[in-house]
Amino acid sequence: MVVWRLLLAPFLLLSISWGQATKQIELWDPADLERGVGEDNLRFSFFKHNGDESGNTLLAIGGVHGDEPGSYFAAGILATHYRVTRGNLWVVPNLNHESMIRNQRGTYGDMNRKFDYVAPDDPDYELVKKIKSIILEPEVDLVLNMHDGHGFYRERWENYIFNPRAWGQSYVIDQKTLDGVKFGNMDEIGRKVSEALNDYLAEDHHYFSVKNTHTRDLDEQMQQSLTWFAVTNLKPAFGIETSKNIDALAIKVAYHLRSVEAFMDIMDIEYERDFDLSFDSVQKVIEEYGTVNINDHIKLDLVDLRRVLRFVPMARSGNTMTFDNPLGAAKWMGDRYNIYIGNKHISTLYPQIFDLDCDLKAVRIVADGRAHTVQMGETLDVKEEFLVVPTPGIRVNSIGFVTPDRTSQDGVVIRRSDIMPRFSQDARERTFRVEFYQQEAFCGMVNIRFP
Ligand SMILES: [Zn+2]
Prior knowledge:
By secondary structure, the protein is α/β, with parallel strands linked by helices. Helix content is about 20%, strand content about 30%. The chain has two domains: about 270 residues, 3-Layer(aba) Sandwich (Aminopeptidase), CATH 3.40.630; about 160 residues, no CATH class. β17 and β18 form a beta hairpin. The chain is elongated, with a radius of gyration of 25 Å. Bound molecules: zinc ion. The site of zinc ion (ZN) has 4 residues, from β5.
């Protein structure tokens, strides 16, 4: 039996594409959106990494506070760069997404004080209701609420930064144990996780310890929190707090990731990730912003996108923007869309309004002497030159390429030096837009990328 598994393992790794066992769960009823319920408050997403082998289930929640990027950049990476082979890791990377893009603790007040009572007319009402129902799902064995907190928690007062009232670099529990419940030995688990982390510190004073808020007897504030809601419903729960006083985002994110892994180790959940946990690698993974897909006509690479993009062809209303990074969001500002990854404002897109009634799906482009079929939104790598093969009835506009004598720019060889660099999509001036129109309708855009 053992031999079989060893023989099969490499084959399985090759045949299963990364993240196949991960499902993003549809949480929100489209009818709610049509009715405009809470439309000014962005919704969170929910990922399930379910292992082939059954086991315990850990629920990790990022972004309850919008100004704590270590929390949600880590949770975003848990959602997209991990694969679970035994047990389950469930992730909500962006619980309070509206506050994240505004980099505020809570745009509508402190969400972590709404778990005892939240008024039905509170903009956070639907979000709190939904996350409570996920916490209460019977499979969930343990809940993590991820934060970046003030200072460095110490049992004895040292100064304003290092003291018993600080939150940073601690695992917060509401009480020592939860009797008769699996993983109810919370104090002991917190200490074990601290030990695992304290072998992995960028600086000695970053060490972690357990902070017990003794919520039932001492802390009325914490009685309104997410973890207390979990504990009173017999779900062991921890706050993970890295320190806001650590400047490097990669270090906070790495501490969060290593902490969640230590919890998974204790819970016998088996996982893989597609990067190593050095601070440099974590920094690179944070910078994988991914793309935004606009109406299936346009796809923009968010890494190195220009800070401002003008004349982006879109519909007057009902534009859909899909991100492959779960921290991605677009916010309509009255005349433009602001594009965010977490609390980072990536770009501003100024739309130019078009009818989108065109069914062109792909075009032919000859690049460096080779013909390609390119779907709308795709990127074509070109070394020297390209030529768009004419499609009857379709007008081509290569942005930044000026030809006073033509209305359509198909059937003509275009070299990089023919295009004005300031019309590029990206700050490095490598990627250019080629747009397709059918009479007055916009059909889509192809990206031409030079070395
Ligand atoms: Zn917090």
